[in-house]
Amino acid sequence: MRNVSIIYALSLGMGLFISCSDESVQQYEPTPLNLDIPTLFEQNLIAPVIPNDNPMTVQGVALGKKLFFDTILSGDNTQSCATCHAPQNAFADDTPFSDGIDGLFGNRNSMPLFNLAWNYNERFTWDGRELSLERQALEPVANPIEMHSVWTEVVLELQNHGEYPGLFELAFGTSEIDSTMVTKAIAQFERTLISKDSRFDRYLLGEETLTPEELNGFDVFMDEARGDCFHCHGNANNPLWTDNIFHNNGLDANFTDLGLGAVTGDPSDNGKFRSPSLRNLVFTSPYMHDGRFSTLDEVIDHYSEGLQDSPTIDPLMKMVDQGGVQLSDQDKADLKQFLLSLTDEAFVNNPDFQIP
Amino acid sequence: MKMKKIVLVIGSFMILLSCGNDDDTDNQDQEAQVTFSFTHNWDGAQVTSADFNTIRYTNEFGEQLSIERLRYLISDVTFINDIGEEFTVDEYNLIDVTNDTGLRYAPSLTLPQGTYMSMRFTFGFDNEDNVDGAYQDLNSASFNVPFMLGGGYHFMQLDVKYIDDTDAETGFNYHVIRAVDNPGTSPTFPQDTFFDVELGPVTITNDVTIEAKMNIAEWFKNPNTWSLNDLDTVLMPNSMAQIMMYENGRSVFSLGNIIQ
Question: Which residues of A are less than 8 Å from B142 in CB distance?
């Protein structure tokens, strides 16, 4: 808080100084921030998505981080974004569903938050309902079973706060706060949440050796005749470990949750959910959109023997009539070891991503 | 007086610009921008993404199927004129019918107007271009082929559901890649499976849009009548299936409308 005040004072001082010395350059501009793009991403992937109307700035990210961890966004000032998207869980929740401020539970597992700027089609959440990070951040604040607040009240509270008007001035050049700027700041912070330092990343960079079990697990992952995971979950040349596309992965024969289908209204989208990244699985249990699986073993068993047929099951799901790809016990164990090699301890412990 | 000078100067500029524009017009008369339009049909019936996800097609073998996902790669567009000069652009284009992207493609190629005896492109990548991990947009689209199968990229991903011989809807993955044997650290390649698509001669008199038509049904019938019940999934490491795809692919494309 003291640092923020100092930055604000210095910035205002700079503004006054510039104002006295040269009228033509008195306009304050926040400091541009370039995302620190990991080497593997730079080498293999197209550029991340940064909206033209919300460029990254040092002050915007700092403000977004403060807002992300601040309970001021909830109706009774008890919950922040981090309540359900905790850093130690790779910004997910450790329960199948999360309870809002009134103790009510939703019906979707909290998605982890990292590498979001590389979601090129910009459909967020499990069902693709939100078409940008900025728009996604609008929703939970007003959702009656989540933060259950009212945006006008949140904005008023921020406006009357001792620090926020100054911080918005620094981030956006105005102290007149609105919900758009709040969500822009949060989205800027979320775009800095980059996970890129797992053992497998270091293996790809030639800095790490994997065990024979992990290497066989990677082969299972890439082998169309065994796991065939790569068609939906990336590969060594796509280190996001997700295609960010929507698939019906055979969880149910009958849908209680239509997923993408409820958003598009297209019955052929029923039961489809966005592929999550396979990074940081050790931190993000339980798994699937409804958190039905507590362990990675259950997840692997699902794809091996537990597939349920339905009209929209993805044709990439193999041997559905037998329940799945029928992995051997050894391949299952090795696949799990490979998946765990995608764990990024440095990400969850990154001091830049902890509560201020 | 000052105003007259300004008018004179502007007038002179206009004359100069006018002369320059005449030259540009002459150049435009001699050169043309080429755009390809990729369309898709099932034995003549138009296919778009709106037709996906419903069992509505019957293949040559008599099996009913739906198209769920279709994307494919073309590269190295080449024109050869009537004196044998070759105009090639070392580029590729991913056509994603599912998401309606890449359906129009303007290669970085400006052609002199005239008669061309041949216009063609490569279906997929030739071996020189099929470099593992080399293309960021294709990596980002998860179009890669596992390194154990030689790496590089899919040439086509056609995912289908069909009614199998037990009357159940079953998945079918017609994924075209470079045919490969001995998957692993030292795979071998029995036969190249990229191929040239020859669209025939064309006389170009202006900027031109050339329709390249894919008859999806051809992937299943000529010369190999495809039985989905026999060959449906895990076809990437199956070199025999890949060679059959290559053989059937040769008659898939044809020239459609030319608009100029």
Answer: 230-232, 234-235, 238, 243
Mean pLDDT within B32-48 = 97
* Max intra-chain CA distance, chain B: 95
For residue B112, the enclosing domain spans 32-259
Please tell me if the domain spanning A2-194 has the same topology as the one spanning A199-347: yes
* CA distance linking residue A220 with residue A239, whole number of Å: 17
Question: DSSP string of B131-172?
Answer: -TT--HHHHHTT-B--GGGT-SB-SEEEEEEEE-TTS-EEEE
| Token pair of A164 as six digits | 């926020």
In 3D, which of A79, A3, A89 has the Cα closest to residue A356? A3
On whether residue B60 sits in a domain, the answer given is yes
Give the pLDDT confidence of A259-280 residue by residue, as tens digits: 999 999 999 999 999 999 999 9
Q: How far is CA A304 from CA A229, A320, B67, in A?
A: 11, 9, 25
Q: Which CATH number fits domain A199-347: 3.20.20.140, 3.40.630.30, 1.10.760.10, 2.30.42.10?
A: 1.10.760.10
Tally of structural domains, chain B: 1
Helix (H) or strand (E) holding A218: helix A212-222
Question: Number of residue pairs across A and B with CB atoms under 8 Å?
Answer: 80
Q: Which of B159, B171, B183 sits opposite A320 (nearest CB)?
A: B171
Q: Flag if A230 and B142 touch (Cβ within 8 Å).
A: yes
- B195 close to B250: Cβ distance less than 8 angstroms: yes
Q: Which CATH superfamily is domain A2-194 in?
A: Cytochrome c-like domain (1.10.760.10)
* Residue in A with minimal Cα distance to B170: A315
ipTM of the complex: 0.90
pLDDT tens per residue across span A150-209? 999 999 999 999 999 999 999 999 999 999 999 999 999 999 999 999 999 999 999 999
Interface test with A, best of B131, B144, B161, B180 (most A CBs within 10 A): B144
Q: Residue ranges per domain, chain A?
A: 2-194, 199-347
Whether pLDDT at B1 is above 80 = no
B160-170 burial code (b ≥16 CB/10 A, e <16)? bbbbbeeeebb
- pLDDT at residue number A170: 97
Q: Is the dihedral of CA B124, B129, B131, B135 positive or negative?
A: negative
Name the residue with tokens 């979001």: A116
**pLDDT number for residue A356:** 86
pTM of the predicted model, to two decimals?
Answer: 0.90
Unique residue bearing structure tokens 């849009």:
B209
